[in-house]
Write a structure and sequence with these properties.
single chain, 83 residues, alpha+beta, two-stranded antiparallel ribbon, two-stranded antiparallel sheet, 4 strands
Length: 83
């Protein structure tokens, strides 16, 4: 299911462009649409960078992958660990 959602999110801009071109042949998108699309891309990239910076482990730490608890019901999330 996540792969399907990722594929749809990837193809949505292309579908929107093709729909725009079929409904309004020969017309260019308005300036506000181009500016809002540009701002959406900038915000998405900024959000991805911010998320990556806040979720990263510190320099010199070793990554410990997720593991099952002894009871077999809970999962300990992955984390950074000082060597």
């Amino acid at each position: 299911m996540p792969l399907l959602i990722a594929a749809l999110a990837f193809l949505l801009p292309l579908v929107a462009l093709l729909l725009w071109r079929s409904l309004r042949p020969g017309q260019q998108p308005s300036n506000w649409l181009l500016v809002s699309a540009f701002l959406a891309v900038v915000l998405a990239i900024g959000g991805a960078i911010s998320y990556g910076m806040n979720r990263s482990i510190e320099r010199g730490e070793r990554y410990v992958p997720p593991s099952w608890e002894r009871s077999g019901e809970d999962v300990t999330p992955g984390r950074g660990n000082r060597p």
